[in-house]
C-alpha cells in the first residue's frame, strides 16, 4: 500500500519545486545574457576577424559576420558547406590545415598558421588562423573552432618593405662604390680597377656610379693648348 504524503510534506515539495523553478529561470537568464554579450563581442570584431567552427567532417557549423568581408560569403552561404569546397584555398594551405587537424584529434601539438586563398574577385589573400579543439561531453574531440584574421594588407606592407630595403641596400652599394682609395696613374690619369685593368677616368666613373661625364676644357688647358683663343678672360 502506497503511503499518502501529508499536507506538510506536500508543502515542502511545492516549495522545493518553486525554488528549483526559480533557479532554473535564473540560470536561463544568465545564459541569455552571456549569449547576448558573446554575440555583441563577435559582431564588434570588425571586418578583419571572423570566428568559426566546423565538425570533423569539415562541415561549417558557425561563422561570425566577418565572413562576408574576408571570404566574400555570407553566414547563410557558408554554414552547412564544407570548408575546403566553398573557399578557393591554396592547395598547400589545405594540406597544412588537414595535417594540423589530424594532430589535434590525435592529441598531438597543433599550431596557428597562415593560409592563402583566392577571393571571388580573383585577388589572392592571406589569413592567420588560430584553431582550437571542440571537446564533447565524453571528452573526445568533436570539431574545431577558432579565429580567422585577415592579414592581407599586413603581408603586402611587409613585402613592400622588403623590396624597399633591397632597393636601398642596392642604392647604398652603388653610392659606396667610389669610396676609398682609387689607384690613379700620375701621368695618364687612368684608374686601375679591382681586376688590374687600367681605364680612363670617365669610363671608370660611368661603370661604377650613376654619374655621367660631360667633357669640357678648363681655362688652364685652353691657355696651354690654344693660346690664340680668347675664350677665358683673366
Describe the structure concisely for a colleague.
This protein is an alpha+beta fold.
Number of domains: 3
Please state the structural category. Answer: alpha+beta
Q: Helical stretch count?
A: 8
**Average pLDDT rating:** 81
Counting DSSP E segments of at least 2 residues, the number of strands comes to: 7
Query: CATH class of the largest domain, please?
Result: Alpha Beta
The sequence of SSEs as H and E is HEEHHHHEEEHEEHH
The fraction of residues in strands falls at 15-25%
Largest beta sheet: strand ordering: 2-1-5-4-3
Shape: rod-shaped
Instruction: Return the CATH architecture of the largest domain.
Output: 2-Layer Sandwich
CATH superfamily of the largest domain: PAS domain
* Residue runs with pLDDT of under 50 for 5 or more positions: none
Q: What helical percentage do the residues reach?
A: 40-55%
Main sheet makeup: 5 strands, antiparallel
Describe the structure.
By secondary structure, the chain is α+β, with helices and mostly antiparallel strands. The chain folds into 3 domains: 1-43; 46-155, PAS domain (Beta-Lactamase, 2-Layer Sandwich); 176-234, no CATH class. Helix content is 44%, strand content 18%. The chain is built from 8 helices and 7 strands, in the order αββααααβββαββαα. The protein has helices spanning 7-43, 67-71, 75-78, 83-86, 91-105, 152-175, 201-208, 219-225; strands spanning 49-55, 60-63, 113-118, 124-135, 141-150, 191-192, 198-199. The strands form 2 sheets. A 5-stranded antiparallel sheet has the order 2-1-5-4-3, sandwiched between helices. The protein has a two-stranded antiparallel ribbon with strand order 6-7. A hairpin with a 5-residue loop joins β4 (124-135) and β5. The longest helix is centred in the first third of the chain and has 37 residues, at 7-43. The model has no long low-confidence stretch (mean pLDDT 81).
Amino acid at each position: 500500500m502506497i503511503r499518502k504524503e501529508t499536507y506538510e510534506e506536500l508543502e515542502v515539495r511545492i516549495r522545493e519545486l518553486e525554488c528549483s523553478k526559480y533557479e532554473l529561470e535564473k540560470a536561463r537568464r544568465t545564459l541569455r545574457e552571456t549569449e547576448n554579450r558573446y554575440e555583441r563581442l563577435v559582431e564588434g570584431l570588425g571586418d578583419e576577424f571572423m570566428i568559426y567552427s566546423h565538425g570533423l567532417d569539415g562541415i561549417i557549423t558557425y561563422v561570425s559576420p566577418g565572413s562576408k568581408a574576408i571570404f566574400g560569403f555570407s553566414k547563410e552561404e557558408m554554414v552547412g558547406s564544407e570548408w575546403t569546397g566553398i573557399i578557393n584555398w591554396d592547395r598547400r594551405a589545405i594540406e597544412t590545415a588537414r595535417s594540423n587537424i589530424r594532430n589535434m584529434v590525435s592529441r598531438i601539438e597543433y599550431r596557428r598558421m597562415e593560409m592563402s586563398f583566392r577571393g571571388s574577385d580573383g585577388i589572392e589573400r592571406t589569413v592567420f588562423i588560430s584553431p582550437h579543439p571542440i571537446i564533447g561531453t565524453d571528452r573526445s574531440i568533436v570539431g574545431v573552432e577558432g579565429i580567422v584574421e585577415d592579414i592581407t594588407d599586413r603581408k603586402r606592407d611587409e613585402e613592400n618593405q622588403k623590396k624597399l630595403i633591397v632597393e636601398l641596400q642596392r642604392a647604398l652599394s652603388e653610392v659606396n662604390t667610389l669610396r676609398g682609395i682609387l689607384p690613379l696613374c700620375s701621368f695618364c690619369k687612368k684608374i686601375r680597377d679591382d681586376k688590374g685593368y687600367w681605364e680612363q677616368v670617365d669610363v671608370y666613373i660611368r661603370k661604377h656610379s650613376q654619374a655621367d661625364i660631360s667633357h669640357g676644357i678648363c681655362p688652364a688647358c685652353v691657355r696651354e693648348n690654344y693660346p690664340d683663343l680668347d675664350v677665358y678672360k683673366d
